[in-house]
């Protein structure tokens, strides 16, 4: 029971961290968004300092290595991986090439990992995948 409580706390903590990062990147009720040019760098710094995830390392991994890496990180359930994918997609859709391509490709990988792990159909996830695929085809 104690192990389960620990895992639930870790999942909640990672989710709160990613939501806080999104708010700092894209603005919120009390904050002004970071400029588009600085979002990718700010995300890398925040993920490393707050979630202990090296985004440069994660972006360089293939899908299998990414899945294995995130499986080894406490707190990265399907919901949190999808939240990270959405953050990468939002940045990728608003930045210029080649950084946007890398972010969108990783977001697509993360959404697919979520689909494999979750085994349920999500309209929101499929819409995000379609939007990324369309952007990648157009670019």
Explain what the structure shows.
With 139 residues, the protein is mainly alpha-helical. The protein has one domain (2-138). Helix content is 78%, strand content 0%. The chain has seven helices and no strands. Helix 5 (78-94) runs parallel beside helix 7 (123-138). The protein is globular, with a radius of gyration of 15 Å. The mean pLDDT is 89.
Characteristics of this structure?
7 helices, 139 residues, mainly alpha, globular
Short structural description:
The protein is mainly α and 139 residues long. Helix content is 78%, strand content 0%.
How helical, in percent, are the residues? over 70%
Largest sheet: none
Cα(first) to Cα(last) distance is: 49 Å
Q: Stretches where pLDDT falls below 50 for ≥5 residues?
A: none
In DSSP terms, counting alpha (H) and pi (I) runs of 4 or more, how many helices?
7
Mean pLDDT equals 89
The Rg value, from CA coordinates, equals 15 Å
Instruction: Specify the structural class.
Output: mainly alpha
Strands, total number: 0
Shape annotation: globular
Q: Could you tell me the strand content as a percent range? A: under 5%
Give, in order, the helices and strands.
HHHHHHH
Question: What's the domain count?
Answer: 1
């Amino acid at each position: 029971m104690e192990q389960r409580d620990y895992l639930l706390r870790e999942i909640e903590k990672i989710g709160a961290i990613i939501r806080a990062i999104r708010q700092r990147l894209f603005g919120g009720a009390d904050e002004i968004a970071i400029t588009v040019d600085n979002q990718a760098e700010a995300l890398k710094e925040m993920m490393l300092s707050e979630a202990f995830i090296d985004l440069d390392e994660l972006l360089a991994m293939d899908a299998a290595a990414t899945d294995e890496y995130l499986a080894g990180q406490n707190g990265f359930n399907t919901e949190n991986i999808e939240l990270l994918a959405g953050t990468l997609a939002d940045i990728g859709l608003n930045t210029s090439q080649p950084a946007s391509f890398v972010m969108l490709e990783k977001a697509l990988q993360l959404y697919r990992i979520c689909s494999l792990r979750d085994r349920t159909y999500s309209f929101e996830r499929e819409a995000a995948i379609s939007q990324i695929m369309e952007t990648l085809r157009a670019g």
